[in-house]
């Protein structure tokens, strides 16, 4: 027989071993990079919003937030912009006067933290994904999934994470 033949007693062919090793290395590399777009979880529906005098409701989770914790004053969130709260892993935006929305501050591409809000978009510095301040939808990729909505309440001039 030739060297390319398979002998049951001698184990798998070299090609099989090399392919398996390559697949294992790729899996390890993907895991180390924080996953993929398909790993993102949470509701991809509409973000939370309400006028300042009403309670805002929504769905999804931002991870790490504490229910009922005071987050910011409404005056801290610029109209047409927003603010990232890294410790709570949430970004709060004000697309129009008195309308506040909140999203997870974890990018749906590879799990990096978004860092800023400018020109109507939430910016992730890792791979330059940008998300809408209105609904968390992807404005430019490589991210393909929107930022999940986070529940907040707006009471008077105070914004709180919902419990």
Short description:
The chain is α+β, with helices and mostly antiparallel strands and 163 residues long.
Task: Describe it.
There is one protein chain. The chain is of the alpha+beta class and 163 residues long. The protein has a 4-stranded antiparallel beta sheet with strand order 5-6-7-8, with no helix packed on it. The model is unreliable at 20-66 (pLDDT under 50). The radius of gyration is 22 Å and the shape is globular. The protein contains 1 helix and 10 strands, in the order H-E-E-E-E-E-E-E-E-E-E. The protein folds into 2 domains: 1-32; 37-161, Rieske [2Fe-2S] iron-sulphur domain (Rieske Iron-sulfur Protein, 3-layer Sandwich). The N and C termini lie far apart (71 Å). It has one helix at residues 14-32; strands at residues 70-73, 81-85, 90-96, 99-104, 116-118, 121-123, 130-132, 138-140, 152-155, 158-161.
